[in-house]
């Protein structure tokens, strides 16, 4: 296996041999520079350069990844960042209990981030023959492949309380404090952040595709051990949630994010630790439980029990008991 800290030039990267990925059930083909992908993680390095049949055929099938998510991964592989889709704008905001009306795509609503022109120029200014880069630093994409997966510790597993009895009548203050702690969380990642998150400004703006784009990319990074990308996704999604205005019509956006995380994420570890993405989402929901608790789909999540209900009650009990 190649040394992931080996220095390479941009010329070496761009002139590396080509590798074809067939993505999704439709096996959509993507032809990429092998060194760009191999440098993102040991998993991809072994797939491209190891002794597997894929390395011999210079092709691989990844049917569990959708093409849009893989495109974001490739963008990260080449430039150390990724672009999320635009939100959608709903034609009718008269929705009952957060249910979705018909949606139409709009170009008027831009992506949820701005990319600094300085960032682009920094990537393009280096000469191909003289620019020496390190696989640990170039483009901010693969700084520390040996780092442990990012995760916040879960609160200790406890039985769901039948009744929560606050010690005082300051529930609102406690919720504000919980939200303040959530907002101050820091998800570190390697690379310079030159992107500002654009918040929602209208109840008509559906952020479900934005949230799911982050979550699906996190799943790819988690399964393929691209740990720096996991860190970046957590950072970007956290900033998006912090700036998200939780209009009553938009409760379903957060519920859809939670459903995805608990349908695809890794279950709670034996020591009680939960997946970093799940931890972020369930903590956000706990901060906003007074509002989200009124949503029918949220109640369905709770009624279903399982990991989500357990994680949720663990956090709420810590705050109120």
UniProtKB/TrEMBL annotation:
Sequence ranges of Basic and acidic residues compositional bias: 171-183
Gene3D superfamilies: Potassium Channel Kv1.1, Chain A
Domain BTB: 17-86
Highest taxon listed in the record's lineage: Eukaryota
UniProt region (Disordered), positions on chain: 163-183
Any one Pfam family match given in the protein's UniProt record, by short name: BTB
Protein name, UniProt field: BTB domain-containing protein
High-level lineage: Eukaryota, Fungi, Dikarya, Ascomycota, Pezizomycotina
């Amino acid at each position: 296996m190649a040394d992931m800290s080996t220095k390479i030039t941009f010329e070496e990267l761009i002139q590396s041999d080509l590798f074809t990925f067939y993505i999704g059930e439709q096996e959509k083909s993507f032809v990429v520079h092998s060194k760009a992908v191999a440098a993102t993680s040991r998993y991809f390095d072994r797939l491209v350069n190891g002794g597997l049949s894929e390395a011999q055929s210079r092709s691989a099938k990844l049917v569990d990844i959708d093409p849009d998510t893989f495109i974001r991964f490739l963008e990260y592989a080449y430039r150390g960042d990724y672009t999320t889709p635009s939100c959608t704008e709903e034609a009718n905001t008269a929705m009952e209990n957060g249910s979705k009306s018909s949606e139409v795509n709009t170009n008027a609503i831009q992506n949820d981030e701005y990319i600094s022109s300085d960032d682009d120029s920094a990537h393009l200014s280096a000469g191909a023959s003289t620019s020496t880069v390190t696989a640990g630093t170039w483009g901010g994409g693969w700084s520390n492949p040996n780092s442990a997966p990012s995760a916040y510790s879960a609160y200790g597993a406890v039985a769901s309380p039948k009744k929560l009895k606050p010690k005082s009548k300051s529930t609102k203050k406690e919720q504000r404090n919980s939200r303040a702690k959530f907002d101050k969380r820091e998800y570190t990642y390697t690379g310079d952040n030159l992107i500002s998150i654009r918040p929602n400004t209208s109840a008509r703006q559906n952020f479900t595709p934005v949230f799911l784009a982050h979550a699906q990319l996190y799943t790819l990074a988690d399964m393929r051990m691209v740990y720096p990308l996991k860190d970046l996704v957590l950072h970007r999604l956290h900033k998006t949630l912090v700036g998200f205005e939780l209009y009553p019509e938009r409760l379903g956006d957060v519920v859809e994010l939670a459903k995805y995380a608990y349908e695809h994420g890794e279950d709670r570890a034996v020591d009680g630790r939960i997946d970093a993405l799940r931890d972020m989402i369930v903590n956000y929901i706990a901060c906003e439980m007074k509002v989200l608790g009124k949503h029918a789909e949220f109640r369905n999540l709770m009624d279903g029990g399982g990991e989500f209900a357990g994680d949720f009650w663990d956090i709420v009990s810590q705050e109120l008991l």
